[in-house]
Amino acid sequence: MAWTWRFEKADGTETEPAVQPEEFSTQSDAESWIGEVWRELLEGGTDQVTLQEDGTTVYGPMSLHAATEADSGGTAAG
């Protein structure tokens, strides 16, 4: 089994990531990696990512912008 990330713009088109990924042997390894590099990916033009296992979507797209908002302590108005 190979776990990989698909890197996308906000409109869902695939984009080249700022950090070169690898194939991961476990979902946990893939998720740990994205947790370490998401800021660099976002700064490099990736808006969202999708996790795939052997070419099949497991989940996503997952916005990298939402992580930024959570880190800033922002709250929704209302």
TrEMBL record:
Q: Where is the composition biased (Basic and acidic residues)?
A: 1-12
> Where is region (Disordered) located?
1-30
Can you tell which superkingdom this protein's organism belongs to?
Bacteria
State the protein's name: Mtc1 family protein
